[in-house]
């Protein structure tokens, strides 16, 4: 996986918030993973309808609250989720853009959209983590959107995620450098 630069509107915000390098690298990795995830989805299921721009924005900003709640860069916590959503809104981003800061950690909600789940999935799989319940939910949504069999979708999804999970050690080392 190639680590690509974040869009300027995200890096400008990170600069304004004086964000730590570790956060910048993490957002960059998740953004690149989301890009690869969407690319592979479009290759596997060419007729899938995904708001790619929104997913990439969400992946590039999902942990923005950690710019202020720095303790959560190194230890668990959920305070950054709500604060991140608030920060994005305070800086002129829409509710639809800002929601990912909250939904990436609250993906079990029944009103969640596929785009929200893809940001969460990218945030997990970049480091090699596989979450069965999350993957099942994504597979069910894909099957519904594509009006096809869940198991057919799940097999393809599993292959994509296995491929993306490879290389996690190198990405973790890059983030921690």
Secondary-structure blueprint:
Layout (H helix, E strand, L loop, with lengths): L7 H9 L4 H24 L7 H10 L17 H12 L4 H4 L1 H4 L10 H12 L6 H15 L3 H16 L2 H9 L1
Helix pairs in contact: 2-3, 2-7, 2-9, 2-10, 3-7, 7-8, 8-9
Instruction: Tell me the structural class.
Output: mainly alpha
Q: In DSSP terms, counting alpha (H) and pi (I) runs of 4 or more, how many helices?
A: 10
The CATH superfamily label reads Hypothetical protein af1432
CA-to-CA gap between the ends?
17 Å
Report the average pLDDT across residues.
Answer: 94
Rg, Å, rounded: 15 Å
CATH architecture, please?
Orthogonal Bundle
Identify the CATH class: Mainly Alpha
Query: What portion of residues belong to β-strands?
Result: under 5%
Helix-strand pattern: HHHHHHHHHH
Shape verdict:
globular
- Quaternary organisation of the protein chains: single chain
CATH topology name, in short, is Hypothetical protein af1432
